[in-house]
Each structure stands twice: as structure tokens, then as C-alpha cells.
Predict the 3D structure of the following.
Amino acid sequence: MNLLEYSLIFMVITFIPCIYRVIKGPTIPDRVVALDAMTTVIVVMLGIYSFVKESVFFMDVALVLAIISFVGTVTIAKYLDEGVVF
């Protein structure tokens, strides 16, 4: 096994506590942060997989997922803070 395979295994292991926090999180902000962490782990996994498979397609998917995650996190944070999005 090379370093990239070990890093993918590590990413899967770091994904498990995020799932737990999304399900059992005592507050909604805890769940939002865990969901944001999950999408970050997925983006990193897609980047590593894209490098291993030498395919640019997965990097495009990772970029779109990162943008959607950022916009969603900011929107939820604004809603929780002010009660409205716009």
C-alpha cells in the first residue's frame, strides 16, 4: 500500500465521528459543523481519487461540491443567526 491508499483509509476513519455528530449532535450548529466537515472530507477524498486515477472529472466534482457546501453552510449560519436568509 502506498501513501495515497493510507490517506484514503484515514479519511474514511475521520468520516465516522462526523456521521455520529450529525446524528447525535445536541444542537443544530453542531450538526451543521459536522456536515461541513463531512463535505470537506469528501472533497479531499475526491481530490486524492482524482490524482490516483489521473482524471480531471473528479476534481471538477470536488470543486462543485466545495462551492455548494460553502454556500449552504453560510446560508444555514445566517438563518440560525438572524432567522431569515435574505
Observations:
- The radius of gyration is 15 Å.
- The mean pLDDT is 91.
- The CA atoms of residues 11 and 41 lie 6 Å apart.
- The first helix runs from residue 3 to 24.
